[in-house]
Amino acid sequence: MSDLLEGLFQAFGLIISLDPALYEIIWFSLYVSGLALAYSTTIGIPLGAFLGLKRFFGRRLVMALLYTGMGFPPVVIGLFVYLMLSRSGPVGVWGWLFTPKAIIVAQIIIAFPLVAGFTMAAVMGVDPNLRRQLLALGATNWQATIAILSEARVGVVVSIIAGFGAIISEVGAVILVGGNIEGKTRTLTTAIVLETGKGNFDLAIALGIILLAISFLINFAMIRLQGRGTV
User: Fold this and answer.
1) Global pTM?
2) Average pLDDT, the chain
3) Do the Cβ atoms of 94 and 138 come closer than 8 Å?
4) CB 111, CB 40: distance < 8 Å
5) What is d(CA 103, CA 86) in angstroms, rounded to the nearest whole number?
6) Which residues contact 135 (CB under 8 A, 6 or more apart)?
7) Angle of helix 59-70 relative to helix 20-53, nearest 10 degrees?
8) DSSP state for residue 183 in the 8-state scheme
9) Does residue 114 have a pLDDT over 90?
10) Tens of pLDDT along 163-212?
């Protein structure tokens, strides 16, 4: 118990003193996860809206693939990206393996199905008569789609938060494709694994506290948004 308390005091000391090694890892994690989320959102929200609004041949197959992606083990995604980016892989000439780009690619694949899937569910939850009414009043397809997304905005924002929560806390895929290289590809989760193995419990606990704080803020925002949606 005394070792835990000592580790906690040392961890808070690192956070308060703005330890450079600690904050370098934090900012890198936020950078790669934020960039991956931006790409996932750019692709996922339009696709989710399209699947929620349109009926076409093969739609159920696409939805099944999307739902499968939402529950796909991240470490398997990491393995897939590793094989694609390795020297013998189809895009190995890019030289992205063990770089931030590889981490971003893996995180995009993890977050994209969540963003698209939750957006689709939110759009499908909007009254289908709304689109018909808007079109009957002279709105274009684009204007009607924007109006529906506005109605489903709480679900859309929750989809973005869920995507970010999934990638900021991911460890297996990130280690596989990033290599956990100090100063280059070390994130919050991979650093916790490394520092714990090295016995640097103060830094590991500090990183854990930061990660828990980020996760709490994400979940708190999601609860607030869901609460507003039920008012």
Assistant:
1) 0.87
2) 85
3) no
4) yes
5) 13
6) 141, 144
7) 160
8) T
9) yes
10) 998 999 898 899 999 988 888 898 999 998 888 888 878 888 888 888 88
